[in-house]
Design goal:
The protein has twelve helices and eight strands. It is an alpha/beta fold and about 250 residues long.
Length: about 250
């Protein structure tokens, strides 16, 4: 089995990508064959329904592909459903306060850490649930929770957010953050650099990792040099478009 959470906790560099629209389940096998180390299903902006997510997750579990879902919001129903499908973890958008983080943990972790609802004869136990007390501990240890930092308010509360028990890492969402910083579409700014430094410092203080979602390799390298270790680069749509553009250019210019 893969060890994504172990690698994240050890602050090893990991690189994944977003699945933004394509819901053919085997697309995740193609992405894995390309070398990506994990995949995030974007259910915040993507129009995936639950059955499509479940099909993709089933393939990921069958072929040992680490799979995370970015849920639409901090909501008990969506968090419960995707965890019961057997995902490895969650990327939570717009975590602005420690209370937001605590609510996520409450929905995503079983007691005593949280209050996740229990229904065990499902995909997340491979339909063979062990003794409940053993499974609860296993599931709580296995589930990854990544809190997305996307606003100035979140930056101010980063220290408190990352200290919430059950939150594994902070992940900057630079598009929304850049808008809140007053520089929409521009990540190469002093304010963004300061924001990255703030998140890195907060994570380091809590002895936890941090990362970012972006598509520019040079920018990702800069974030890595600043101390980040978790990276989601581009999406299946972006990669298809880039490859198409490259083929067209080579065909007409060679």
């Amino acid at each position: 089995m893969h060890n994504l959470k172990e690698r994240i906790n050890k602050k090893e560099v990991v690189l994944g990508t977003m699945l933004s629209e394509v819901y053919t389940p085997n697309v995740v096998r193609v992405i894995k064959a390309g070398g990506m180390e994990f995949i995030i299903i974007d259910s915040e902006h993507g129009y995936f329904d639950y059955s499509q997510i479940a099909n993709i997750v089933a393939v990921c579990n069958g072929f040992d592909i680490p799979i995370i879902v970015r849920v639409p919001n901090i909501d008990r129903a969506s968090i419960t459903k995707v965890l019961d499908m057997g995902v490895d973890g969650l990327l939570i958008p717009m975590v602005n306060t420690a209370l937001d983080a605590e609510n996520v943990v409450n929905y995503a972790k079983y007691a005593p850490l949280g209050a996740r609802g229990i229904s065990t004869t499902r995909a997340h136990t491979n339909y063979e649930p062990p003794k409940l007390s053993e499974y609860i501990e296993h599931a709580n240890n296995k589930t990854i929770i990544l809190a997305q930092i996307e606003t100035k308010q979140a930056l101010l509360n980063a220290d408190k957010i990352i200290e919430v028990e059950g939150i594994d890492a902070l992940i900057i969402g630079p598009n929304d953050l850049a808008i809140d910083l007053g520089t929409p579409g521009d990540f190469e700014t002093a304010s963004m650099e300061k924001s990255i430094e703030t998140v890195v410092a907060s994570a380091r203080k809590a002895k936890k990792p941090c990362g970012i979602v972006a598509s520019n390799i040079g920018f990702l390298h800069k974030c890595k040099d600043m101390g980040m270790t978790i990276f989601s680069c581009n999406s299946e749509v972006g990669m298809i478009k880039s490859a198409s553009m490259k083929i067209v250019k080579e065909f007409y210019e060679s």
